From TrEMBL:
Residues 478-491 have a biased composition (Low complexity). It comes from Ficus carica. One of its GO terms (biological process) is cytokinin metabolic process. Its cofactor is FAD. Residues 476-497 are annotated as: Disordered. Gene3D superfamilies: 3.30.465.10, FAD-linked oxidases, C-terminal domain, Uridine Diphospho-n-acetylenolpyruvylglucosamine Reductase, domain 2. Residues 56-224 form the FAD-binding PCMH-type domain. This is cytokinin dehydrogenase. Its EC number is 1.5.99.12. It is an enzyme of class 1 (oxidoreductase).
Length: 497
């Protein structure tokens, strides 16, 4: 449970270009002439037909491993001109949960990986500008690779996803949120491309892949800290818990010495969750027992906070933390602290992933929850991201089954609607357009207008089930001359969750 604000980022967008003559036959696709690899290999098709949720399957006609942004543009313009109909979806690291990156009778573009990148993009690994403090990256680059590239210069992005094995473009398309983003609110536009297409630029931020495919991104950097003091404190009172969270994020404009660098929270409903899968905070050899803090089996709330530091601030870190903690209203005996390198803190969720993989608990169904940008958030200055991160297990226990957990998710949404709680789904999934209209609310007219301008044949990201593809007219807007590969530039970065 965390309170956050959206951040923005620089990127290049592959936009629709009109051509004619492609039929939806895999052999025709192979004659596209891309520099990368356009594959109809059964193993590639099977991989692209699945996602992290393991709840939806859709097999594409082919999979493109692009060598460059031009490969992506070449495929999109061919698909757009297809008389018989061809849809396109970009896939990052496959962490969608409801088929959002899948496509039937179309092509999935595998943005992650370097199999197809044998030319320009292969040589264009993350490029760091040390003097201007930014990094240019391929849209399919994983955040862990961005970190490796920038940390060599003692720099790092200002804000992160909680999980580094996501792609940059995929995170931007879903308007991610994390525990650092409250410190880096909305970014300002510094420059645009020569096309001056700010409408498209803002449309793709949180646009769910509906308006274009992000092929490159420019990310704002700052000096990377060396170490992190990682603290967890517990609450038995929900109001005290939320009041402290909101107080801490209100400090975002103060000097670094007077605020925490990361603020998140979560609910503990049983003893196992305090030593949960999301982190390696506590050693398995020394788990924390709720009995040690006089918990009587009720619900507890955990506030997770960090303070970054290096050699120059090591002598003052203890005093800074003590001063901040004195202003909070947690259970006095519940302070748990660990100290670790900055890179290890950023990689904490991946370490937990490896533990689950070793137990066979990763590749199971995951019924998760999920101004100018397309991102939809509650219309309030302060809002909470509530994440129910659960796995469905075939253990014989009905309460662990996929259908039981999905039904719980639906019950929660119905409860919010009935109680008048303003809730929006992150990684949204609906099956009717009216539900999408309700989801976007006041932004729907703008969202629909942008779709008609940037993808009037509705060929992109059809797995979202927002729009139905239309192939009646190969060129519904033949007078539109603004159809080229856009390079839009913006600062700084993202927001994830």
């Amino acid at each position: 449970m965390a309170t956050n604000k959206l951040l923005l980022m620089t990127f290049a967008i592959c936009r629709l270009i009109v051509t004619v003559g492609l039929t939806v036959d895999p052999t025709d696709l192979l004659r596209l002439g891309v520099d990368g690899q356009l594959s109809v290999d059964p193993s590639d098709l099977e991989t692209a037909s699945l996602d992290f949720g393991l709840m939806t399957r859709a097999k594409p006609l082919a999979v493109l491993h692009p060598a460059s942004a031009e490969d992506v543009a070449r495929l999109v313009r061919a698909a757009y001109g297809s008389a018989q109909g061809l849809t396109v979806s970009a896939r990052g690291h496959g962490h969608s949960i409801n088929g959002q990156a899948q496509v039937t009778n179309g092509v999935v573009i595998e943005m992650n990986g370097s199999r197809g990148r044998t030319t320009a993009e292969a040589a264009a690994r993350p490029r760091v500008s040390e003097s201007e403090r930014y990094v240019d990256v391929w849209g399919g680059e994983l955040w862990t690779e961005v970190l490796k590239a920038t940390i060599e210069y003692g720099l790092a992005p200002k804000s992160w996803t909680d999980y580094l094995y996501l792609t940059v473009g995929g995170t931007l398309s879903n308007a991610g949120i994390s525990g650092q983003t409250f410190n880096h609110g909305k970014g300002e536009i510094l420059t645009c491309s020569e096309e001056k297409n700010s409408e498209l630029f803002h449309a793709v931020l949180g646009g769910l892949g509906q308006f274009g495919i992000i092929t490159r991104a420019r990310i704002d950097l700052e000096p990377a800290p060396q170490r992190v003091r990682w603290i967890r404190v517990l609450y038995s009172n929900f109001s005290a818990f939320t009041n402290d969270q909101e107080f801490l994020i209100s400090l975002h404009g103060l000097p670094a010495s007077q605020r925490f660098d990361y603020v998140e929270g979560f609910v503990i409903v049983d003893e196992g969750l305090i030593n949960n899968w999301r982190s390696s905070f506590f050693s398995p050899k020394n788990p924390v027992k709720l009995s040690s803090i006089n918990a009587d089996g009720g619900v507890l709330y955990c506030l997770e906070i960090t303070k970054n530091y290096d050699e120059s601030t090591a002598e003052t870190i203890d005093q800074e933390i003590e001063t901040l903690l004195k202003k909070l209203d947690f259970i006095p005996t519940s302070v748990f602290t660990t100290d670790l390198p900055y890179v290890d803190f950023l990689d904490r969720v991946h370490k937990a992933e490896l533990k689950l993989r070793s137990k066979g608990l990763w590749d199971v169904p995951h019924p998760w929850w999920d101004q100018r940008s397309s991102a939809v958030m509650p219309d309030e200055e302060v809002f909470y991201l509530v994440a129910l991160l659960r796995s469905a297990l075939e253990s014989g226990d009905e309460t662990q089954s996929l259908e039981y957990l999905r039904d719980q998710n639906r019950q929660i949404l119905r409860f919010c609607a009935k109680a008048g709680i303003k809730a929006k789904q992150y990684l949204p999934h609906y099956t009717t357009q009216q539900e999408w209209v309700d989801h976007f609310g006041d932004k729907w007219d703008q969202f629909h207008k942008r779709k008609m301008e940037f993808d009037p044949r509705h060929i992109l990201a059809t797995g979202q089930l927002i729009f139905t593809p239309s192939f009646a007219h190969p060129n519904p807007n033949p007078n539109n001359k603004n159809t080229n590969l856009l390079n839009s530039h913006h600062n700084p970065i993202i927001a994830s969750s």
